[in-house]
Amino acid sequence: MSSLAAETPTDIVETPSGKGRGDENFPVGSWLIRRDLRRHVHAFYRFARNADDIADNAALPADEKIRRLDRMADVLNGASGGDSPAALAMRRSLAETGVTPQHCHDILHAFRLDAIKLRYEDWEDLMRYCRYSASPVGRQLLDLHGESAETWQASDALCSALQVLNHLQDCGEDYRNLDRVYLPQQELAAAGSRVEDLARPALTPGMRRVVDALLDRTDGLIAEARRLPAQVVATGLRWETAVIAELAARLSRHLRRGDPLAGRVKLRKSDFALAFLHGVTRGGRR
Q1: What domains can you pick out in the chain, each with its CATH number?
Q2: Is the pTM of this model over 0.90?
Q3: What mean pLDDT do residues 71-80 have?
């Protein structure tokens, strides 16, 4: 009875937003991934998603967000209690697979930053954030498949590209709801733009230049990321990384033509279908 009580949630620290795998720009643990590993991919996604939801919860003050993220870390590290179901499930997954918990702790570090850091100085500052918010996702997946750490550089580029693309998609919403701006201050100043322009119903000419400049840098990351499939041994994962790289390139093109302040710029069903065909044909060989 006491053991059961120790795992019974009393005050859940997680604040799920309702977003799920279907809301992402990329497949999460799709059928391309080895069947026995999919539930572990889903456990990591749920862990990261719930931590992200805490950091993005506009109703919570910064210190409370950090307290809850710290509690997720405690449960991940072995603390008793069921107040963080996602961390508990992740702990069990790590114990079963033998993957390092460091990628999970890196993710939590990024979301602690989100609780207190509202502006980014330049591209390098943003990339340092992506090292913790994005890179661990790819590294976790590669480690789960037993891939070499030599794949990390191209994987980091892919994950950082996806992160920046998501920042551009949500730039208006992040500013209005959280006063959080990932667009580097240096880029804004160079284009003669201000963060307050993100509250407008459409991109100003200056903000359009900022978005395009960031897309230029992101396209460089995508070009580096296209090396990844050839480095991956696992066939399904090789296909999936090729698909994701193609989706990133397609979303970048949509953002060049679209206005993320006027309406959400997102991938279409045809993008997923064509990216899949690209992935299994061009990403099929090492």
Answers
A1: 29-116 (no CATH), 118-286 (1.10.600.10)
A2: yes
A3: 96
